[in-house]
Amino acid sequence: MLARRLHAALAMLVVIAAGIAWRYAPLHLPRFAWKYGGSMLWAVAVYCLCVVLLPRASVRVVALIAAVLALAVELSRLIAWSPLDAFRHTLAGKLLLGAIFSPRNVVAYWLAIAIATLVDRQRRAQAHQNS
Predict the structure, then answer these.
(1) Domain boundaries, position 90
(2) pLDDT tens-digit series, residues 2-19
(3) What is this structure's pTM?
(4) What's the total number of domains in the chain?
(5) What is the 3-state secondary structure of the chain?
């Protein structure tokens, strides 16, 4: 389980760096790729965080928790509360919570979590096979 936690932590750091570059580096991406690629990277980071926090959980449980967290963050954008709105205007708030609710983001999140789940399942199967 330590190996799974370490791999997930490393993957999370790489994905976070890629997500920041995706959104803030002058990559000149098409708007659709910029918007939903960044959202998908965010969701993969959430999946990795769930693995770091729950390394013994099954892939299915991690995927479910990550999907619920992603949905909750998206739904939180519908809440108008001054302290939360102020946080959303900071860089950390933009990166962690975003600002505008979009059902399409939920689709992007869940697609990315499904892909992360497949990768995690394959990696766990290979690790089990090698042990």
Answers:
(1) 2-130
(2) 899 999 999 999 999 999
(3) 0.94
(4) 1
(5) CHHHHHHHHHHHHHHHHHHHHHHHCCCCCCHHHHHHHHHHHHHHHHHHHHHHHCCCCCHHHHHHHHHHHHHHHHHHCCCCCHHHHHHHCCHHHHHHCCCCCCHHHHHHHHHHHHHHHHHHHHHHHHHHHHC
